[in-house]
Amino acid sequence: MKTPSSRLTFSPFGVLKDLKIGEKKPASGLKNKNKKAIQPAKKTAEDFRTDEEVFLDAMSGVREIKEFRDMDAPRASRAKMPPGRRRPDNSMDALKKIVEGKEGIDLTQTAEYIEWTSPRTGRRDLARRLHAGEFAVQETIDLHGFTAPEAEEAVRDFLHGAMRNRLFCVKVIHGRGLRSPNGPVLKESVRRLLEGPFKKRIWAYSTAKGSDGGLGATYILLRSGKKG
Predict the structure, then answer these.
(1) DSSP track, 10-56
(2) Fold entry, domain 112-222
(3) With CB atoms counted within 10 Å of each terminal CB, which end of the chain scores lower, N or C?
(4) Helix axes 185-195, 148-164, angle to 10 degrees
(5) Are 129 and 135 in contact (CB under 8 A)?
(6) Alpha-carbon distance 166 to 192, whole Å?
(7) What is the model's pLDDT at position 42?
(8) Taking the CB of residue 59, how many other CB atoms lie within 10 A of it?
(9) Closest listed residue to residue 218, CA positions, set 205, 203, 202
(10) N- to C-terminal Cα separation, the chain
(11) Which residues pair with 202 in a beta bridge?
């Protein structure tokens, strides 16, 4: 009869008697690894540099371009006024001179001034020369007292007659319409004719000079005559 040997005894839970309830046995080889992972990294001298030192280090290879030292800066078109000062307003002095007759009004700067030059002339200043009175007026028509339809018909006949007679410079007096409740009706009628059916028959037109009707009259250069 065989006696049981201790080597054949199997006790899988025997090791549990050495453990306390709730206690965990650390896994082999993990303890040192975990401690190494949570250790803070050592700071180097690079971490203690200021922003200025970093900037200077980055710019260490930059060199000045000496040619740019003498570059001219753009100059302002107008001189700046000192703080607190304004440009003098001479409008009242200019108006006083006009009222006293010492200076005339520049009609070309008013809203009522009109002018046009045909591109076929090749002379951009023709209308301004016409306004300045450089061309002698050969015939004139006065539209005061006319209604708009009557004035339009009269101007048509006037211009056709001037072209038949090969006239070069004529004048139409239409007034400014300051007393009219509808504004410068006659002036606008004349302008529509010049910019419409007669546009190809004229070289230029412009407001008359101040001493010859001014804003109430219009000079017209006709293509029927010799161009000046």
Answers:
(1) --TTGGGGGSPTT--PPPTTTHHHHHHHTSPPPP-GGGG--HHHHHH
(2) Ribosomal Protein S8; Chain: A, domain 1 (3.30.1370)
(3) N
(4) 40
(5) yes
(6) 23
(7) 62
(8) 8
(9) 205
(10) 155
(11) 222
Q: Which residues contact 129 (CB under 8 A, 6 or more apart)?
A: 123, 135
What CA–CA distance (Å, rounded) separates 29 from 99? 110
Radius of gyration over every alpha carbon of the chain, rounded to an integer in angstroms = 50
Does this model's pTM top 0.85? My answer is: no
β-pair partners for 220: 170, 205
**What's the DSSP call for residue 209?**
P
Share of the chain above pLDDT 90, in %: 39
Q: What is the strand order of the sheet 115-117 is part of?
A: 115-117, 202-207, 217-222, 169-173, 139-142
Confidence of residue 30 (pLDDT cuts 50, 70, 90): very low
Residues 207, 215 contacting (CB under 8 angstroms):
yes
Closest CA to 130 of 212, 211, 205: 205
Backbone angles phi, psi at 127, to 5 degrees: -65, -40
